[in-house]
C-alpha cells in the first residue's frame, strides 16, 4: 500500500471509529469522555510493518483470531507507562483461568528511534510479561502516527526527549474491531473484562 493510501486509511478509520478527535490527556492522564466503541471497522485495515522485541518482522494483525489488548508507550518512560503496564497486567490477572491463555497483548512504542528490539526485550523481561502472548513492537515514525490515529492516542515529543501522551487501553476482537476502551491510568475496566469473558468460544462457556 502506498504511503498516502495508508495515511488516508488511518484517517478514515479514526473518523469512522470515533467521529472526531478524542480528548487530549498528558502525563496526568485524566480520563476524558470517549465516543462509543465502534462495531464494524477493523484497525487491521491499516498496513503497518513492525518489528517485535525478538527482532522479528510482524504486522499489526499478528494476533488475528485472538482477542487483543493494544496500547502505546515507550521504554524510557518513568511515570505513566509503568502504571499503564501494571493496569494491563491487572486486567489479565482478573480474567478467569479459562480465558487468560487466549488473550494477546500488543504494545506499540511511541519512540521507535530509541526503542530497539533489545530495549523492548529488556522492558518485557523487567515487567515479567508472558512473551508467548505479549509483543512489544516498534515501527517507523509514520507507522506510529498511523496506529496512534486509529487508536485515538495523542502524543507529542518534548525537548528533553520524553513524551506527553494519552494512556488508552483498547480491546480488539478477533478481527481487530475495537470493542472497549479504558482512558487514563487506574480507571474502571469492568466493560473490558465483561467483553473478554464473553470472547470465550461457546464450547468453553
Characterization of this structure:
The chain has 205 residues and is α+β, with helices and mostly antiparallel strands. It has a single domain (3-204), classed as Glutaredoxin, CATH 3.40.30.10. The chain is built from five helices and nine strands; from the N terminus they run αβββαβαβαββββα. The protein has helices at residues 3-18, 80-93, 117-126, 141-151, 190-198; strands at residues 49-52, 57-59, 68-73, 104-109, 134-138, 155-157, 163-165, 168-172, 178-183. The strands form two sheets. It has a seven-stranded mixed beta sheet with strand order 2-1-5-4-3-8-9, with helices on both faces. A two-stranded antiparallel sheet has the order 6-7. α1 (3-18) packs parallel to α4 (141-151). The radius of gyration is 16 Å and the shape is globular. The relative contact order is 0.22.
Could you outline the blueprint of secondary structure elements for this entry?
Layout: H1 3-18, E1 49-52, E2 57-59, E3 68-73, H2 80-93, E4 104-109, H3 117-126, E5 134-138, H4 141-151, E6 155-157, E7 163-165, E8 168-172, E9 178-183, H5 190-198
Helix pairs in contact: 1-4
Observed structural traits:
Glutaredoxin; seven-stranded mixed β-sheet; two-stranded antiparallel sheet; 9 strands; disordered N terminus
Amino acid at each position: 500500500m502506498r504511503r498516502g493510501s495508508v495515511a488516508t486509511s488511518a484517517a478514515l478509520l479514526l473518523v469512522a471509529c470515533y467521529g472526531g478527535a478524542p480528548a487530549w490527556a498528558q502525563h496526568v492522564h485524566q480520563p476524558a469522555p470517549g465516543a462509543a466503541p465502534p462495531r464494524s471497522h477493523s484497525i487491521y485495515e491499516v498496513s503497518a510493518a513492525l518489528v517485535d522485541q525478538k527482532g522479528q518482522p510482524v504486522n499489526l494483525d499478528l494476533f488475528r483470531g485472538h482477542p487483543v489488548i493494544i496500547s502505546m508507550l515507550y521504554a524510557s518512560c518513568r511515570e505513566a507507562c509503568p502504571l499503564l503496564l501494571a493496569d494491563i497486567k491487572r486486567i489479565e490477572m482478573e480474567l478467569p483461568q479459562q480465558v487468560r491463555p487466549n488473550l494477546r497483548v500488543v504494545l506499540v512504542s511511541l519512540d521507535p528511534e530509541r526503542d530497539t528490539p533489545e530495549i523492548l526485550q529488556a522492558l518485557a523481561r523487567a515487567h515479567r510479561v508472558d512473551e508467548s502472548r505479549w509483543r512489544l513492537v516498534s515501527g517507523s515514525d509514520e507507522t506510529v502516527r498511523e496506529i496512534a490515529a486509529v487508536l485515538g492516542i495523542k502524543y507529542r515529543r518534548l525537548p528533553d526527549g520524553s513524551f506527553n501522551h494519552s494512556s488508552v487501553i483498547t480491546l480488539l476482537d478477533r478481527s481487530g474491531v475495537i470493542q472497549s476502551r479504558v482512558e487514563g491510568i487506574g480507571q474502571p475496566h469492568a466493560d473490558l473484562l465483561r467483553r473478554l469473558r464473553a470472547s470465550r468460544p461457546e464450547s468453553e462457556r
